[in-house]
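Workshop exercise sheet. Pairs work together: one partner reads the sequence aloud, the other fills in the structure field after running the prediction. Swap roles for the next sheet.
Pair: D.N. / O.F.
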Amino acid sequence: MKALVTLASLLALTSVAAAESYDATQPAPKANTYVALDSTIIVQRSISGGFGLSGGMRLSDTPLFARAAVAAGVAGSEGRWQQARVGVEARGCVAREWVCAFGGVDAGYQHDHVIDDLLFTDQMHETNAHDLLFVPRAGFELGKQLKLRSSIELPYSIRLDEREQVAGIALTAGLAGSF
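Structure field:
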């Protein structure tokens, strides 16, 4: 009996070996698609704001994604703008996909109907432009599957109905879902 108590005591006092599961030691799976809803502030022909919806899909087993985006909003005090864009972006993540960065370029069409007061005057300014649009962009995301995101964009438009080229800057913030 004394031997049995001694054996039980030794077993109780020894440490138990523990190991992580195989899945826990493997890299996190990469998301192959995303959908995002963003708010945007643009300074181009006027100060404009709006909302956009975008989505992307991984190209094979690379960090490159094909993407498409649509956006619309208010241009100046009474005008409206709309965009439709397609592009490619490179995406990379660290910290088991919790922190991601992206950069790319889009091309597309923009209708920009600006109605606004001219600064320091009582006159109204109106522009109704149809543009070819190029947009280099870079940003970051925080989160696993639901991500907070922000980006900076440098839209460059070439007017299709007149000889005018306009550069601008845009800031976006929003939410994205990766899956």
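Discussion prompt: The two ends are 60 Å apart (CA to CA). What would you look at next?
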